[in-house]
Design brief:
The chain is α+β, with helices and mostly antiparallel strands. It has one domain. It is built from 4 helices and 2 strands. A two-stranded antiparallel sheet has the order 1-2. The chain is globular.
Length: 95
């Protein structure tokens, strides 16, 4: 199977370099910084998650942040465009 070389510059220009994505990345970094300043290093294999999603009005304040396993935080169903189908993870939906 032949693999095509990835064009990282084009990917950045199309998606990651857009002002909206730069702002989103800055917000994620700020949330991680808030958590680590209060609790120390993020445990290995864990992500920082918002208890109430930012898209639902949640803030990146310490009271709204928690460390959760990466698999749990990244298990949301997605549409073909990458948008989340639901704010409920597959794991939560199966309970």
């Amino acid at each position: 199977m032949a693999t095509k070389k990835r064009d990282y510059a084009a990917e950045y220009a199309k998606y990651q370099g857009k002002p909206e994505q730069i702002a989103n990345r800055s917000a994620r970094n700020g949330a991680r910084r808030t958590y680590t300043n209060a609790n120390g290093a993020i445990p290995e294999g864990q992500d920082i998650d918002h208890k109430k999603a930012v898209s639902k009005g949640g803030k990146s304040s310490l009271g709204n942040l928690q460390a959760v396993p990466k698999a749990e935080n990244r298990s949301f169903s997605r549409t073909k465009t990458g948008a989340m189908k639901s704010q409920k993870s597959k794991r939560e939906a199966s309970k």
